Amino acid sequence: MAAPIRSTPAAAFFSASDTAALTVGTASANVAIPSGGRHLLLTNSGSNVVYIAIGTDNTVSAAIPASGTPASGIPLLPNSQTILYAGTGTYLAAIAAATGNTLFVTPGNGA
Hints:
The chain is mostly beta strands.
Protein backbone atom coordinates (compact mmCIF):
# COMPACT_ATOMS: atom_id res chain seq x y z
CA MET A 1 0.00 0.00 0.00
CA ALA A 2 1.37 3.40 -0.93
CA ALA A 3 1.92 5.91 1.87
CA PRO A 4 0.30 9.37 1.62
CA ILE A 5 2.50 11.93 -0.13
CA ARG A 6 2.46 15.72 0.21
CA SER A 7 4.55 17.93 -2.05
CA THR A 8 6.14 21.35 -1.67
CA PRO A 9 8.55 23.21 -3.96
CA ALA A 10 12.25 22.50 -3.40
CA ALA A 11 13.64 25.10 -1.04
CA ALA A 12 17.00 26.39 0.15
CA PHE A 13 16.31 25.56 3.83
CA PHE A 14 16.67 21.79 3.85
CA SER A 15 18.85 19.88 6.32
CA ALA A 16 20.00 16.87 4.29
CA SER A 17 21.23 13.39 5.15
CA ASP A 18 22.75 10.60 2.99
CA THR A 19 21.58 10.35 -0.64
CA ALA A 20 20.51 7.19 -2.47
CA ALA A 21 20.63 6.94 -6.27
CA LEU A 22 18.05 4.95 -8.23
CA THR A 23 18.45 4.13 -11.92
CA VAL A 24 15.01 4.63 -13.45
CA GLY A 25 13.90 2.84 -16.58
CA THR A 26 10.80 1.35 -18.15
CA ALA A 27 10.15 -1.12 -15.31
CA SER A 28 9.33 0.03 -11.79
CA ALA A 29 12.36 -0.16 -9.49
CA ASN A 30 12.59 0.72 -5.81
CA VAL A 31 15.14 1.73 -3.22
CA ALA A 32 15.13 1.86 0.57
CA ILE A 33 14.87 5.45 1.78
CA PRO A 34 18.00 6.29 3.81
CA SER A 35 17.35 7.36 7.39
CA GLY A 36 17.65 11.01 8.24
CA GLY A 37 14.27 12.71 8.05
CA ARG A 38 10.67 12.42 6.90
CA HIS A 39 11.01 14.84 3.99
CA LEU A 40 12.64 13.74 0.74
CA LEU A 41 14.49 15.99 -1.65
CA LEU A 42 14.03 14.25 -5.00
CA THR A 43 16.26 15.19 -7.91
CA ASN A 44 15.53 13.84 -11.40
CA SER A 45 18.73 14.21 -13.41
CA GLY A 46 17.29 12.49 -16.47
CA SER A 47 15.66 13.78 -19.63
CA ASN A 48 12.33 12.02 -19.02
CA VAL A 49 9.43 12.48 -16.63
CA VAL A 50 9.86 10.07 -13.71
CA TYR A 51 6.80 8.77 -11.82
CA ILE A 52 7.28 8.19 -8.09
CA ALA A 53 5.47 6.19 -5.40
CA ILE A 54 6.33 5.82 -1.72
CA GLY A 55 5.45 2.77 0.35
CA THR A 56 6.20 0.92 3.56
CA ASP A 57 8.02 -2.08 2.07
CA ASN A 58 9.94 -3.22 -1.00
CA THR A 59 6.77 -4.27 -2.83
CA VAL A 60 5.88 -0.64 -3.62
CA SER A 61 5.80 0.08 -7.34
CA ALA A 62 5.22 3.14 -9.47
CA ALA A 63 3.21 3.24 -12.67
CA ILE A 64 2.80 5.63 -15.57
CA PRO A 65 -0.79 6.84 -15.79
CA ALA A 66 -2.61 6.58 -19.10
CA SER A 67 -5.42 8.82 -20.27
CA GLY A 68 -8.52 7.85 -18.29
CA THR A 69 -6.60 5.34 -16.16
CA PRO A 70 -5.17 6.68 -12.89
CA ALA A 71 -1.98 5.03 -11.63
CA SER A 72 0.24 5.07 -8.56
CA GLY A 73 2.82 7.60 -9.68
CA ILE A 74 3.53 11.27 -8.98
CA PRO A 75 5.31 12.95 -11.92
CA LEU A 76 8.68 14.62 -11.47
CA LEU A 77 9.68 16.61 -14.53
CA PRO A 78 13.06 16.12 -16.26
CA ASN A 79 16.02 17.87 -14.64
CA SER A 80 13.98 19.08 -11.69
CA GLN A 81 13.69 18.81 -7.90
CA THR A 82 10.86 18.65 -5.40
CA ILE A 83 10.47 17.96 -1.70
CA LEU A 84 7.89 15.37 -0.63
CA TYR A 85 6.74 14.36 2.83
CA ALA A 86 7.35 10.60 3.10
CA GLY A 87 5.17 9.98 6.16
CA THR A 88 5.74 6.39 7.27
CA GLY A 89 7.23 5.42 3.91
CA THR A 90 10.49 3.49 3.96
CA TYR A 91 10.79 2.65 0.23
CA LEU A 92 10.51 4.74 -2.91
CA ALA A 93 9.68 3.35 -6.36
CA ALA A 94 10.07 5.06 -9.72
CA ILE A 95 9.42 4.40 -13.42
CA ALA A 96 9.83 6.35 -16.67
CA ALA A 97 8.75 5.92 -20.29
CA ALA A 98 12.41 5.56 -21.37
CA THR A 99 15.76 4.58 -19.91
CA GLY A 100 18.64 6.87 -18.99
CA ASN A 101 17.32 8.52 -15.82
CA THR A 102 18.77 8.76 -12.34
CA LEU A 103 16.66 9.77 -9.37
CA PHE A 104 18.53 10.99 -6.29
CA VAL A 105 16.67 10.51 -2.99
CA THR A 106 17.90 12.68 -0.11
CA PRO A 107 16.06 12.49 3.22
CA GLY A 108 16.15 15.43 5.57
CA ASN A 109 14.13 18.01 7.43
CA GLY A 110 12.69 21.27 6.24
CA ALA A 111 10.98 22.44 3.12
